[in-house]
Amino acid sequence: MPKLILLFFLIFIITGVVAQERAVTPEATVVSSPGIPTAQAKSIDGLSRYINAHYRTPQEKVQALYSWLTSNVVYDVYALTNMPQYYEKQALISQTLTTKKAFCQGYAEVFNEVCAKIGVPSYLVTGFVIPKGSSKPVSHAWCAALLNGKWYLFDPTWGAGFVENGKFVSRINTRYFMAPPAKMIQTHIPFDPLWQFSTQPLTYQEFISSRTGLAKPTVAKPKPLFSYRDSLAVYAASSHKAQLVSTIRRISAHKAIPPVVLDHLNHTKKNLAINNQNETVDLYNEAVSSFNVGIDQLNQFIGYRNNRFQPAKSEQELKQMTQHCADKFSETKRLLQQIKPGDNTNLFLSLQNMKAMVEKALLQVESQRMFVDHYFKTPVKQRPALFYKQALAERN
């Protein structure tokens, strides 16, 4: 029986945020930038090793990282209107460190990756801002990190300077370093309310109204408390798929969803669909692999039988050989039963074909089991004839 050829599906999971932010002009607070050697500043590992070697506490390490980013990476104004909608994460990080230019996602990805290397729990946060002098929400990216048992927010993009008259103005400041969530929500609102780190998260409309001066004087209705600490603990322990599902659920719970959020929500749903497709492909390939192992074992048994069970094995050993084959084909059946092809016609047909092949293989295993039973019940002198009869029966 020929083996199945493993099917490999290459699916690029690309996530990104269209960032067209124009940073507000904050009060400048100059901070010293660590003199990280150029050679070490070209990679996440190099940056992390230097920071770990020269700074002691987590807060000192994060401050050195923030200071280096805001001092050495300039905002890529060209990317403001010409950047691709989607990107590959590691390629963006490499580009940021090589060119020392970035848009918000580049700053945030580098910050988040280095935090992981220096042992600081962190998350990349995506949301939107309303630039000064504008009423249009635009996507943005920043980071959250856990320091001294508390969650703080960091925006190295706005910490590096601002855009004025189409040009980037470098003006390093610490206004967006270790910003308390209650302060950061004045200018930045995450797409997912989880990253507000608040028991009373703002709605998108409340944020927009507060930023555009359109808030109406109304009596505030009490909101149900949001247990973000419990939700964060569940999120941290969840699989990537479960994280996507919970994010979609929290965003969709808003009564009014602005276009900038809807774009992100749809993109997240696409990522979930890709994740599901990848899981299905992985499951199918695992089933194919299990089937191929079973076929190998079955072929080895048949080859050994064709050699008239030489060198000799006990009845128990022969039965174990056939049982191993059966176990692999049963495992294949179990995996195939978990696959939901949906409206994928090609996958549906492949599943039907695989299931038929598994059933045929199981019948062959059962035939070999029966032969082993018959073989040991037959007098020794009559056994050689059994091999000829079995081979003849299989050919017919």
Automatic annotation (TrEMBL):
Keyword field: Signal
UniProt-recorded name of the protein: Transglutaminase-like domain-containing protein
Organism for this UniProt entry: Rufibacter tibetensis
Domain Transglutaminase-like: 96-158
Entry-linked SMART domains: TGc
InterPro entries attached to this UniProt entry: CAP/Cytokinesis_protein (IPR052557), Papain-like_cys_pep_sf (IPR038765), Transglutaminase-like (IPR002931)
Keyword rRNA-binding found: no
Top-level lineage group: Bacteria
Keyword Signal annotated: yes
A single Gene Ontology CC term: cytoplasm
Signal peptide stretch: 1-19
One Pfam family in the UniProt entry: Transglut_core
